[in-house]
Amino acid sequence: MSVLTDVTRTDLNTVVGTELPDTDLRGLDDDGIDAISQLVAERGVIFFRNQKMTLTEQVEFGARLGELHVHPAAKAPDGFPEVLLVHTDENSKFTAGDGWHTDVSCDARPPGLSMLRIEQTPPTGGDTMWSSMYEAFETLSTSMQEYLLTLTAVHRGDVAYRGRYSARKDDVEYPVSEHPVVRTHPRTGRRALYVNSGFTDKIKQLTRKESDALLAMLYDHIAYGVRFQVRFHWEPDSVAIWDNRCVQHHASWDYFPETRHGYRVTTVGEAPYLEI
Ligand code: SIN
N or C: at which end does the chain have fewer Cβ atoms within 10 angstroms? Predict the structure, then answer.
C-alpha cells in the first residue's frame, strides 16, 4: 500500500488523533511510511488495531520511521537496546508516563516519533491521553503567544528519572538541554508549545518564582484543555504512533493491581528550533 488516502481513516475529533483501522503497518511501502510521518505531524497521534508483531519486527518498523533512540535511564530488554519496556503490575511502584509530558525532552535532540505497542491490557482502564501542543499554543492570547516566542526553557532528566529506574544509580548524570519554549514543526511549519511537567525545570530568562508561576499556568492550560485532547482505549496489539514535537501524552494508572504490558520504540528528532 502506498498512500494512506487508500485506507479508512477516522478522525477522533477535529484537531488531534486519527485511527486507521484497516492498515497493516508491516505492509507499508516507503510512500506509506512517509504518509504516516506526514499524518502524525498533522494529527499528533495515530492509532492502529490488531498489529501482531514480534519485538524484532517492531524495531525494524521503527527504524523505517527514523534513527532509533536509546533511553538515557531505563533498562532495555536483553538484545534490544532501542526498546523501552512499558510494564506495570501488582508490584509496580510507579507507571511510566503517568503525568503530562513529551518523551525525553532533556535530550539535545529529543525524540521525534514514538511507537507504543501494547500486548497485554488490563481488564479495564489503562487508557492513554494526548494533547495537541499546536492547539495549546494557538488557544493562548496573542500577547502571551508573542511573549512565549522570546523564551527558552531548561529541561532536565533528573526531574523525571531520579529514583525511578532502579537499574541506574542515582549518582548518574542525566541529560540537561535548553530548548525554545515554542518550536516550529519541520513538516507542517506550525508552532507548538514545548514545555512539559515531566522534564522542564525552569524558564531561563525568568526568576525561579516567575518561572514556576508561568509554567504552572501553561501546565494548567494543557491539562484542562479537553477540547484539544484525545483519549485512546487499548486492546491487545493496538499501536499508537505520536509526534513528540506537537503532542504531550499521559498514561492513566487506573488498573492497579492488574497488569499492562507493551513496548515502545522512539526515533531521534532534530534539535528543536523556532522559526520567527
Ligand atoms: C509513555 O509515556 O510512553 C507511556 C505511555 C503509556 O504507557 O500509555
Answer: C
Per-residue pLDDT tens over the stretch 81-93 = 999 999 999 999 9
Which residues does the annotation mark as catalytic?
Answer: 101, 103, 249, 264
Contact 157, 106 (CB under 8 A): yes
Query: Is the distance from CB of 86 to CB of 228 less than 8 angstroms?
Result: no
Mean of per-residue pLDDT scores for the chain: 93
Kindly report the protein residue whose alpha carbon is nearest to atom 8 of ligand 1.
251
Query: Going by CA atoms, what residue is nearest to atom 2 of ligand 1?
Result: 97
pTM score above 0.90 = yes
Domain boundaries, position 36: 10-268
173: domain CATH number is 3.60.130.10
240 Cα: distance to centroid of ligand 1 (angstroms):
10
* Binding pocket residue ranges, ligand 1, CB within 6 Å: 86, 96-97, 103, 114, 116, 128, 249, 251, 264
Average pLDDT over residues 193-213: 97
Distance CA 10, CA 19 (A): 5
Q: What percent of the chain has pLDDT over 70?
A: 94
- Three cell numbers, residue 23: 492498515
Question: Is residue 171, in this structure, part of any structural domain at all?
Answer: yes
